[in-house]
Structures are given as C-alpha cells and as structure tokens.
Amino acid sequence: MSDWLPSWRETPTRQAIVDFVLRTTQAGAQDFIAPADRIAVFDNDGTLWSEQPLYFQFLFALDRVRALAAAHPEWKTTTPFKWVIENDMKSLVAAGGKGLMPIIAATHAGVTTEAFADIVRDWLATARHPATHRRYDAMVFKPMQELMAYLRANGYGTWIVSGGGQEFLRAWVETTYGIPPQQVIGSYAGLAYVPGAQPAILKTEQPELVDDHAGKPVGIQRFLGRRPVMAFGNSDGDFEMLEWTTTGAGPRLGALLHHTDAAREFAYDRASVVGRLDRGLDEAGQRGWVLIDMARDWERVYPDAT
Amino acid sequence: MSDWLPSWRETPTRQAIVDFVLRTTQAGAQDFIAPADRIAVFDNDGTLWSEQPLYFQFLFALDRVRALAAAHPEWKTTTPFKWVIENDMKSLVAAGGKGLMPIIAATHAGVTTEAFADIVRDWLATARHPATHRRYDAMVFKPMQELMAYLRANGYGTWIVSGGGQEFLRAWVETTYGIPPQQVIGSYAGLAYVPGAQPAILKTEQPELVDDHAGKPVGIQRFLGRRPVMAFGNSDGDFEMLEWTTTGAGPRLGALLHHTDAAREFAYDRASVVGRLDRGLDEAGQRGWVLIDMARDWERVYPDAT
Predict the structure, then answer these.
(1) Strands B39-42 and B157-165
(2) Cα–Cα distance measured from residue B79 to residue A124, given in angstroms and rounded to the nearest whole number
(3) Under an 8 A CB cutoff, do B217 and A193 touch?
(4) Nearest-CA distance from A286 to chain B in Å?
(5) Is B93 a residue whose pLDDT tops 90?
(6) Among A209, B87, B195, B237, which is most buried by a count of CB atoms within 10 Å?
C-alpha cells in the first residue's frame, strides 16, 4: 500500500482509510462492497486544493472583471464591479454571496461551454496565487491525488461534489485529478441550446443548483442515483454529504480534512469565513468520521513542494 | 460480429452501424476515437422500448391514480383525476401535457426516491400492456439491447437521454439494459434533502428539466459534459440530440428508428401524437442519418417473441 500513498505518514488516519479499502474490496470479506457500489465523493475547495484567502474560482471571477473592464466603462461607477477595479476587497467580502452575483453572471454567463472552458484553462496557465505565487492548479493536494488513484485502482469510482461551478471544474480536473467531466457534480446555472449548422450550448444566468450543504446530497442523487460509501470534505458545507453517505447501511467512511498547517498551507476552522469547519469538528467523533490532520498526517502537501 | 447482433438482419443499416464501430475502434484507423470519447446516447420511449398507445410512464401514472383513489375521495369530482377514475381517455388526451401535470405531481412527488423506485418496480412486475398483455419491460427491443452490449464491448459508454422521468427509468434500466443510474439522463423535478438520523431524499413537484427537444443536448452537457459521437432516437423530440451529436468534428453517427411494423409492433410516424417523426424523416437523408426500418432491418423485435 505504501506505493500508493507516499505522501501520507504512517498514522492511524492513513490506517483507517487503508483498512476500509481492504475490508470492502477483498473477495469474501464480511464488508465486501460490489464494484458498482464503490463510490467515493470528494469536495474540491479545501479538500482537493487550497481555498485561502478566497475560493480560487472567485479570484478567477475578479481577474475576469479586470480583463473585461476596458469593454465595460460603466463598471467604473457600478457596484460591485467598481470595487474590483478599485481593489476594494473589504467591500467585496462584505457584499456576500448575493451582492456578488452580478460578478458571477458577468464572468460565467453569455458564453458557450466550450469558450468558457478555454477561458478557464488560459487563466490557470497564467494566473498566480497572491501569497504562494504558484499556479492555482499547483496548489492541489498531492496526498488526495494519491488517495483518488489508490481508490480507483481498487475499483472505486471517484466523483467531485463541489460548491464550485460545474463547468469551471470540468475545464481542468480531468488533467489534474483524473476525473472525467461526467463525474463532476458542481453548482450550475442554466444551459441553452442554440440550434443550427454549428450548434452551441450557452451558459445562462438562471441559477439551478447550489451544490453546497443540503444541495450536495441532492446533487449526488441527481447525477449518481446511488448513495456513496465514502465521502471526503473539509467544511460544514460538506456536513450533509457526509451525513447522507455515512448513515446508509453497510460499511461507510466519512472524513474531514482539518487545515492545521500554517507552515505548509493554512490553518483555519471554526472562525474562518472561507471553509468554516465548526459543527463538523463538534460531531465528527460521535459520528465516527475520520479527522485528517494536515500537519500530522501528511508528509507533503503540494506536488512540487514539501 | 454476427454473434453480437443476431436480431439484426444483414442489411445496409446494420452494416453502417458495424462499419462505424470498426473504423472508430481499431487502433491505427483514420477515424479512431479515444475510449474516453466513445459515448453513445439513446432515447428510451420508442427507441429502446415501445411507446404506443401512450408513453408507458403515463400509463403507470394512470394506474397509480387508480391505486390511490380510495385515499383521495375528492378525486371523484376533480379533473383531471375524475377522467382517470371514469376511464375517460378522450378528455385525458385532450388535456395535453400541462393539463395532466396534477396527475404527474400526485403520482411522482412527495415520496422518497427509494420508495418511488419500489413503486415503479412493483408496477412493472404486475401491470400488463393493454394490447399485448405483456409486462411493459418485456416490450423492450431485443436488437437495441444487443446493440448496446455490442457497443460496450467495443469501449463505448451507453447513456439514456429520455423525455421520461429520471427516477422512473433508474428503477429498472440497470437490470433491463445494463445501464447504471449515473448514465440515465431524463426529465426531472426537484429533490429535497431531509436530514436526520435516517436522512432521505424527497421528490418534489418543482419542474427542473424537460429532457426533450432542445432539453436533450442541455441534459447531455449537464450530465456528460462531453459531446456524444453516436445518437439513437425515433421521434422529432430527438432531433436536437442528433443534430448536436452529428455536427461535431470527426466521425459521427446519428440514427432514427422508423416504426414501420404494424404486424410485430406498431406503424406510425408523421401523424402520430405519441412519438411523432416528421422533420426527422424529411432531413435524415441530407444530414446523413441512418434510418432503421423496423420491418426491414430487424429479425425480431421483443426478447421473447419473433
């Protein structure tokens, strides 16, 4: 097993995960799970890649506003766009989700799905994280990449169930995590088919699924139609996904990544606006969920660093 | 190849399908398609099983109204329910889709996804088709079952893209077609997560996707996130799905099943209310779509009959 998980230290956390895989996949084991039911779901922000100081997709949206500002002179005097142009992060954060919807609409809608994927990939190739100065897709967690490959090698399907945008994720997660587009469940707005000799599918502004909290089990049922047997998250937004996964019959594994590593990544939990983990910390013990302690359990964090 | 498709006669139709599979899957072929892109989508009603005299899911809904009528005395005097109880098919058909929405809501919502699947399976085990007196799931098309197995053996993913209800389909298509729930795209209303020690997911009345006409490419993008390379349908409701599939770059195959066989199944096209095929017949030639002529191309229709 050590070949599969070199970035995990030999701690009880790693052992709990490996034990679960062994007892659910070995023929004749009491807890054997048929291959079709081996479904593992993963949150993305804070579980598969970093999410501080702000969700990376939000930083993408801000970069897009700056890139499009020359074509939108009216944004100089219109909130919330003017806050982006003036780099007024305080007002942006204070505006909250609903106040920022115009930014999401202006940067995510009115474009074909193919063009949007190109925009996201171009951004990933050029943008750099404000603190680490790395590419954002270099801030994925190496131990989680290894874990997903290990699970797939044991017949588990690996799915993303993220509050992030479905088409945003699809643009890069196949290359980075080995997860194909049909296994990406995310938040989404509407799609509109444009017929013709060269038909296209346009992204619209109409909100349809917020794939967070109770929206996660809803998204899982909508796309998968099966209850997963393993779920990995890191924040209270993943609580319902872990609850839905671990209250089913038979062997189940729920795990929360606790960000405890200010030296190598970030340290935050109950008091954080982004990726707040509070109820999950309170209830993990009684619910039998594994707490992955980043500082303790991981030998390294990012693929190209210690 | 004859081992895979014994219910198909040796006609140019069969040859066109087999040729497409050979030239897209043989290593080194000019039209080779990578396994990840081998996606084939199938309409269900009229393409994988019969749909006359009315969509089978609608007959299910009528049976459910009759089964629940004793608990709803008010239905005796309320349209559209009273039409069901009085067996007034003329008024039911005249009411059209919107007029029948209360029946769909009363028989498909306010129930957990697990309980609904049990209801559908119980109905399939006991209900009989009014004309053939067969089980409804015995009225699936044997040649299409063979075709899907043949495609899967050649590395193609097989997906259902149906105007029928997603949870209705999932209850039986894995057993009948070998298609797992995560490869079933259908029409759907809302889902609501109910938390707790034994959480559940409830089906609600809120319409979300009508997976027909332009809704089919939308559903494909939403669930698959890839453009298929093969599409099979039988009615104008599948037109946009075939258009979206066959206008992509590289090798593509679109096919429409033409119901020409009054002796073994049903014969209908341009004038039918159910499964109307009109524009598709007009444009199949110029678009290079294959027309499968049931009477000519199929050696047998249903699994247990000629």
Answers:
(1) parallel
(2) 57
(3) yes
(4) 12
(5) no
(6) B237
Who's near B178: CB < 8 A, 6+ residues apart? B145, B148, B149, B152, B158
Locate A90 and state its tokens.
């305080």
Please say if the pLDDT value at position B114 is more than 60. Answer: yes
Average pLDDT over residues B73-87: 96
C-alpha distance across the termini of chain A, in Å:
21
Q: Which residues, at least 6 apart from A199, have a Cβ–Cβ distance to it below 8 Å?
A: A193, B217, B240, B243, B244, B247
Q: Is residue A258 predicted with pLDDT exceeding 80?
A: yes
**Among candidate residues B211, B227, B86, B113, the one with its CA nearest the CA of residue B171:** B113
- List of chain A residues whose C-beta atoms are within 8 Å of the C-beta of residue B166: 222, 225
Interface test with B, best of A183, A222, A283 (most B CBs within 10 A): A222
Chain B residue nearest residue A226, CA to CA: B181
Q: For residue range A32-56, what is the model confidence (pLDDT) as tens digits? A: 999 999 999 999 999 999 999 999 9
- DSSP per-residue string spanning A139-171: SB-HHHHHHHHHHHHTT-EEEEEEEEEHHHHHT
Predicted pLDDT at B1: 52
A12 Cβ under 8 Å from any chain B Cβ: no
- Locate the chain A residue with the closest alpha carbon to B169: A225
Residue of B nearest to A159 (CA): B182
Beta bridge partners of A268: A259
Tens-digit pLDDT profile for residues A2-19: 589 999 999 999 999 999
At A165, the pLDDT band (50, 70, 90 cuts) reads very high
Question: From B212, which residue of chain A is nearest by alpha-carbon distance?
Answer: A193
Question: What is the per-residue DSSP string for B151-176?
Answer: HHHTT-EEEEEEEEEHHHHHTTHHHH
**The pair of three-digit structure tokens given for residue A44, joined into one six-digit string:** 């993305």
> Distance of alpha carbon B68 from its chain centroid, rounded?
26
Chosen for mutation from B222, B241, B242 (greatest number of chain A CBs closer than 10 Å) is B222
Q: Is the peptide bond before B6 cis (omega within 30 degrees of 0)?
A: no
What backbone phi and psi angles, to 5 degrees, belong to A241? -65, -45
DSSP one-letter string for B173-229: HHHHH---GGGEEEEEEEEEEE-SSS-EEEEEEEEEE--STTHHHHHHHHHT-S--S
Q: Report whether pLDDT(A266) > 60.
A: yes
Q: Could you give the count of Cα atoms lying within 13 Å of A46 in the half-sphere of its Cβ? A: 32
> What single string gives the DSSP state of each residue in A224-288?
T-S--SEEEE-SGGGHHHHHHHHTSSS--EEEEEEEE-TTTS-EESTT-STT--SHHHHHHHHHT
Summarised one tens digit per residue, pLDDT across range B267-289 is: 999 999 999 999 999 999 999 99
CA distance A154 to A25: 7
What was the pLDDT predicted at A226?
96
Q: Looking at the whole model, is its pTM more than 0.80?
A: yes
Report yes or no: B191 at the A interface, CB cutoff 8 Å: yes
Give residue B2's pLDDT band: very low, low, confident or very high (50, 70, 90). low
**Nearest C-alpha neighbor of B242 from the set B201, B191, B280:** B280
Distance CA A279, CA A287 (A): 11
ipTM for the whole complex: 0.96
